[in-house]
Amino acid sequence: MYSEITAAIQSAKTAIEIVKAAHGLSNHSELLSAVTAVQIKLTDAIASELASQEKQAMLAERVRELEKQISEVEDWKSQIQRYMLFQFPTGALAYALKPEQENGEPMHYLCTACVDKKKKTTLQPHGRGFHCPECKINITTKESSPININRGSHGGSWMSS
């Protein structure tokens, strides 16, 4: 952008010098040639200015995009700080809402896979655990109770006779 501005200034200076030199010309063809040269320099200066404005507009748009991204990252960080990684008895992990961060919300868990993708998806109760409606995974949070395989009145298994 600096080079375009410098080129525009230089073109304007050259145009002024050509006009001053043309002022003293006595020959009509030399005067027309000088005017043409001035017009070319002015056209170059205008083109440089337009290119500079276009670059400036592109840079301003890029700054707006980056500011939006920074704002989204900061917002995400403030949201996720309300949670802590929690391990269920089964070893499954989820992000649990910190008790002091409830702000009137009921206790809930977030899917770790979704949090890794910067999505805040609340896990829903499902069977012996939770289900993520976004990525469709099931998280088992309760150990299954052992099945009693003794069936007879003698305490034996179905295979004993």
Task: Sum up the overall morphology in one term.
Answer: rod-shaped
DSSP summary, beta strand count: 6
Class from helix and strand fractions = alpha+beta
Q: How large a portion of the residues is in β-strands, by DSSP E? A: 5-15%
Helix and strand element order: HHEEEHEEE
Query: Kindly state the mean pLDDT as a whole number?
Result: 84
Helix content: 40-55%
Number of domains: 2
Most strands sheet: 3 strands, antiparallel
Q: How large is the radius of gyration?
A: 38 Å
What is the end-to-end distance? 95 Å
Strand order of the largest sheet: 1-2-3
Uncertain regions spanning at least 5 consecutive residues: 155-161
What is the number of helical segments per DSSP (H or I, 4+ residues)?
3
Q: Would you kindly provide a brief summary of this structure?
A:
The protein is an alpha+beta fold.
Describe what you observe in this structure:
The chain is α+β, with helices and mostly antiparallel strands and 161 residues long. The protein has 2 domains: 74 residues; 59 residues, no CATH class. The protein has 3 helices and 6 strands. Strands 1-2-3 form a 3-stranded antiparallel β-sheet. Strand 5 and strand 6 form a beta hairpin. The chain is rod-shaped, with a radius of gyration of 38 Å.
